[in-house]
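Async update (no meeting this week)

Hi team, since we skipped the sync, here's where things stand on the single-chain job. The sequence we agreed to prioritize is pasted below, unchanged from the tracker. I ran it this morning and attached the output directly underneath so nobody has to dig for it. Comments welcome in thread, and please keep replies under the output.
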Amino acid sequence: MDNLAIYPDLKGRSVFITGGGSGIGASLTEGFLRQGAKVAFVQRRDGTAFADEMAEKTGNRPLFIACDITDTAALKAAVDQAATAHGPVRVLVNNAANDQRQDTLTLTPDDFDWSMAVNLRSYFFAIQAVLPGMKAAGGGSVVNFSSISYMMPDSGYAPYITANAGITGLTRTLAAEFGADRIRLNTLAPGWVFTPKQLELWAEPAAVEAHLKRQKLKDMMKPEDIVGGTLFLASDSSRMMTGQVMVIDGGVVVTG
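Output:
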């Protein structure tokens, strides 16, 4: 990540990242740490070892808070803990998600509700939790991670794709509601990013080959490919950008 642009306004800024200890989230945490930001991240699994690694690697230790993001009370408490440690959260990155494959014909109401809780409801309540601090601080930036899966369209995980479409609507309505407070909300929609989880579970050679044929840029996307766009949306360099969807997918879908 030595080639990342530097955004001076992110230095010292309080950043809260959901799912910030693995996959794309781990690269996001590292990217913000390298900007000099004060980063707190949440996930269910123990992130202490990752925090240690980041402290050694960047000289800037993130705050790990154990949290199940589907537990709204715990999520709000984590935001409060981060604000106590680092000051009001000025950047929220709603990154945590689960794209578990689910058969439409056997999907249960509990399955559907679980997917909504992880992939959409947690986004709303994380935003709700940071809004008062952002308003008091004079503004902030929310980056909501979605996916190009609802634009393609894809299949095999209908609740996840439904949630991703909902994230765009959530972003746009709250951008309109809180723009006067200088709180910006944007969506970042990655394509297929080959995280360790993706490589282990779903990156069969035929599927990878078919996807790369769709991409204009033929390299397999890595988590670090998403960091630059996230930093831009978080920083004051995008201060007049809100309610938008930024796609980073190697050229699979088009917007506009």
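Quick observations from my side:
Strands lie at 14-18, 38-43, 63-66, 91-94, 140-145, 183-190, 245-248.
DSSP finds eight helices and seven strands in the chain.
Reply here if anything looks off.
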